[in-house]
Amino acid sequence: MDDLIIAPSVLSLDYSNLQSQLDEVKKSGAQWLHFDVMDGHFVPNLTFGPDLLKGIKKASPLYLDVHLMVNDPVFFSDIFANAGADLITFHCEALGNDMKKVSDLLDHIHKCGIKAGVVVKPKTPVQILEPVLDKMDLVLVMSVEPGFGGQSFMPDMLPKLSWLKDYRENHHLGYRIEIDGGINDQTAKLAREAGADVLVAGSYVFKNDICDAVDSLR
Ligand code: DX5
Ligand code: ZN
């Protein structure tokens, strides 16, 4: 998987300039928008509902990568699939790391006609996903504790990326490997070398010149 995807996280977007910031992201050549849904329970923060996703879909042609940080991903996956998500990822921890439930939800999201993947928190070993990796379009590795933008990258998450890359190659699978949290020009390099092919970046993109920041992640 040689083509690198940059997914700016709208968590750090300046909402007083929504359209111009989205236009700038498009101009930067970033291909996806990362949309962090937090329910105030799975993580101690509260963010966006489906109406905002619908608005962003009208305001930008970019692919919508929805990251569900919620206690009930079964309920919310339908809501965000209907609102226009192109890809939905959910945390296996929210399903008690029960791979039967994870597998069923992946099937359900696929039946909605969109792509599906699973997220692991820093303390969750990625190897627990082995039984369901063949069903996934993407695996998302958290390199910070989920909940807030602007935290520091955890380098000890890099071996998860390498493991996923080797497993994909050895088993001829096709999932993408996404990394989320603390990505900047330096940590992007480490993540890419370890195997990431989708880079989420929030504060680094939106607290700098958007085009320059996206360029420097490539
Ligand atoms: C954190 C979110 C991230 C967040 C990343 O829970 O999942 O997507 O926006 O922000 P930065 O890039 O600032 O670490
Ligand atoms: Zn995220």
UniProtKB/TrEMBL annotation:
GO terms for molecular function: D-ribulose-phosphate 3-epimerase activity; metal ion binding. PROSITE patterns: RIBUL_P_3_EPIMER_1, RIBUL_P_3_EPIMER_2. A divalent metal cation binds at H34, D36, H67, D180. InterPro entries: Aldolase_TIM, Ribul_P_3_epim, Ribul_P_3_epim-like, RibuloseP-bd_barrel. Its cofactor is Zn(2+); Mn(2+); a divalent metal cation; Fe(2+). Pathway: Carbohydrate degradation. Substrate binds at S9, H67, G147, F148, G149, G150, D180, G181, G182, G202, S203. The keyword Manganese applies. Binds 1 divalent metal cation per subunit. It catalyses: D-ribulose 5-phosphate = D-xylulose 5-phosphate. GO terms for cellular component: cytoplasm. It holds the Pfam family Ribul_P_3_epim. It comes from the Bacteria. One of its GO terms (biological process) is pentose catabolic process. Its EC number is 5.1.3.1. The keyword ATP-binding does not apply. The active site is at D36 (proton acceptor), D180 (proton donor). It is an enzyme of class 5 (isomerase). Keywords: Carbohydrate metabolism, Cobalt, Isomerase, Manganese, Metal-binding, Zinc. Belongs to the ribulose-phosphate 3-epimerase family. Catalyzes the reversible epimerization of D-ribulose 5-phosphate to D-xylulose 5-phosphate. NCBIfam families: PRK05581.1-4, rpe. This is Ribulose-phosphate 3-epimerase. The gene is rpe.
